[in-house]
Amino acid sequence: MRLVILMGMVLFVGLGCSQIKEKNITEVTRTELDTILLVDVRTPKEYIDGHLDNAVNIDWMDESFVSGFEKIDKDKTIYLYCRSGRRSASAAKYLDSLGYSEVYNLKGGYMAYENARK
User: Fold this and answer.
1) Which of 25, 45, 94, 109 qualifies as a cystine partner to 85, CB 3.0-4.6 A?
2) Closest Cα partner for 58 from 82, 34, 74?
3) How many whole angstroms separate alpha carbon 38 and alpha carbon 80?
């Protein structure tokens, strides 16, 4: 019985400490962009003001965030970004908890993309 409880605690702690998978925005290749789902988790206004090519907008702060992913295969590779990487990191962690297996946060977000273009 103690072994079962101990194994359960180890599993719980291990899952709680899972790392957010991140990539620098400059590491994303054109080939990857053709095979992944790129999601801008900013507000629609921020999205309209500028976004990455081929990105869809699913607002992390909107109550429809989860429903925006309902038709997406949980094994699909998903790259998330926001303005600086904070919202997208939270969204990536949340999607991971829902069972999406290949979710990446684009480190530095749209600001890093803009800086890399200059």
Assistant:
1) 109
2) 82
3) 6
CA distance 98 to 86: 19
Domain 20-117 has CATH 3.40.1440.60: no
Tell me, yes or no, if the pTM score tops 0.85.
no
Cα gap 107→36, rounded to integer Å: 16
Residue-level pLDDT at 103: 95
> In terms of pLDDT, which residue wins out, 17 or 36?
36
The whole-angstrom distance between residue 45's C-alpha and the CA centroid of its chain comes to 19
Give 118's pLDDT tier (boundaries 50, 70, 90). Answer: confident
- The answer to whether 101 touches 84, Cβ cutoff 8 Å, is no
State which amino acid sits at residue 84. S
